[in-house]
Amino acid sequence: MAPPKILLCGDVSGNLKQLFKRVVSVNKSAGPFDALFCVGQFFPNSADQLDEFSGYLEDRAEIPIPTYFIGDYGVGSAKFLLAASKDAANQGFKLDGLKVCNNLYWLKGSGKFTFHGLSVVYLSGLQSSVSQQFGTYSEDDVAALRAIAEDPGIVDLFLTNEWPSGVTNKAATSDVPPGASEPSGTDSMVAELVAEIKPRYHIAGTKGVFYAREPYSNVDAVHVTRFIGLAPVGNKDKQKFLHALSPTPASTMSAIEIQTKTSNTTVSPYTYIEGTANAKEGSKRSSDSVSDSDSQYWRYDVSQKRQKHGDGNRLCFKFVSSGSCPRGETCNFQHDMDAREQSLRGVCFEFMNKGKCERGADCKFKHSLQDEGESNSHKRRTGNSTRSTECWFCLSSSKIESHLFISLGEHYYCALAKGPLVEDHVLLIPIGHSPNTLSLPSECEIELGKFQDSLKKFYKKQEKEVVFFEWASKRSTHANLQVVPIPSAKAASVQNIFHLAADRLGFKFTTTKFSNSSDGRKSLRTQFDRNFSFFYAELPDGTVLSHLIEESEKFLAQFGREVMAGLLNKADRADWRNCTDSKEEETKMVANFKSRFAEFDPNS
């Protein structure tokens, strides 16, 4: 498949007619292009431009190709963006853009999505000390990008409005346009973020000039980054405001292609930022003072009154949001389980941070701390009916995605995995609302064994083996046993890569080999303690790896999937949220699986 062809544009400032006239011309001569991405101010500078500009947003004039923008500020922005925010079709998490009108999408806040195979990350708005509804980014937006930076895989495209501070450092001075090194129109936060995210391409506007910097090497990464600063549409100096690009997605490139560097590649212009941060990071900190260089690691400052359990120290966002932090004991901020519990109970991050949420009634999260006693009382009153209607896996839930069903038994059902790691990746899920598969009655275990045996035979026909694994967190609500097929040639490497991953996290697996899976499962049931979280994997050769997780231990919720992604060279699919397909595509995958699985299905 040919790589996507995209157009990149600098500050539009309301000049849509001039922009799209140029887009149509370029599309005709060098296209077709799949999309246009705009950075810098998108809305007009003055009310005089509004009539012409509004014609496009009100569908009176045609937008020729799908257009995405992040510069959500300028005259008229509040009117159109407020309407887009309230549109029922834009409710929920729309990381790939809120539709403003036909072919126009607003990339709001910050996020990551996949476009024709390209991994696209963005930060909308500008930095400001004054909170506004539109046109500025928040601490939450920055925190989300820092979390994305820790995810596996390479980001292809990073879109920001302002240039990163210091981008001309280490660059050839003869190539730097006048004024490009001046601080106006730059943002030090963007510099920190791009140094962490390490995209292959960084696109920005607002500086008023065009600048294509030489590629630079990244710290702790093999690939280079290319920065492109774009001039405003219709600028008087006739500097380049429209740039064409056709990058091959990193997820499809070979290791040699990823590592390729041109002769003019420089060192990172942000090395001095990272060096300063690392130097300060090693210094001693008092409990009531946090160094500015460490601001990149704190996320939510919960006051003593709201936090209840703390002394006012800052919390680690990565831990609060995911339950683990890659910095482990070296992290200088709190890994607080109470704050983690509030997150699991649906408390809004912004509320925990500021004591209020700018989204107000439109926010889908809770704006009060959730008391455990009240929560348990509520559960006793509502019983299974509430949890089953809210649970993603309960058959009676309104959230259940029944089009993913493959086979339905008496105690278990088999379903296609959401965002599958590989083809034919499925889940085995208890029909009852159980937090794990190891504490269920014997009749459930017998049916699970039948499902496992059937799937082994199904994969064997395809010359594949299978790995079963489960993360039985003591805070889980509804269990799911992951079923990942692997090429037979990879089977001998599975145990080694699990042990390697465990070593890196600082623990050792309990390793036992059994002649049949039934004995392996019996052993796991004796090891399991519902007062602790537990991870295990059943390997093709009968080996069972297990690990009982202590309360203070840092363990990655996606550990099993990340290990399998490494084994299968699918690092870009380590996070299922980056791999979701449309309902139509999922339905086709299920139909295809069912037709091939029919002869093995224990419930057919």
Largest sheet: 8 strands, antiparallel
H/I helix tally = 17
Indicate the multimeric state: single chain
Strand content: 15-25%
Give Rg in angstroms: 26 Å
Helix/strand/pairing category = alpha/beta
Kindly report the spatial arrangement of strands forming the biggest sheet: 18-19-20-22-21-24-25-23
- Give the % helix: 25-40%
General shape:
elongated
How widely separated are the two ends? 38 Å
Q: What is the tally of beta strands?
A: 25
pLDDT averaged over residues: 82
* Unreliable residue runs: 273-313, 373-389
Give a structural overview.
Mean pLDDT is 82; it is low at 273-313 and 373-389. The chain is of the alpha/beta class. The longest helix is centred in the C-terminal third of the chain and has 20 residues, at 442-461. A hairpin with a 2-residue loop joins β4 (98-101) and β5. 30% of the residues lie in helices and 18% in strands. The chain starts with 5 loop residues before the first strand and ends in a 7-residue tail after the last helix. It is elongated. The strands form five sheets. Strands 18-19-20-22-21-24-25-23 form an eight-stranded antiparallel beta sheet, sandwiched between helices. Strands 6, 7, 8, 11, 12, 13 and 14 form a seven-stranded mixed beta sheet that branches.
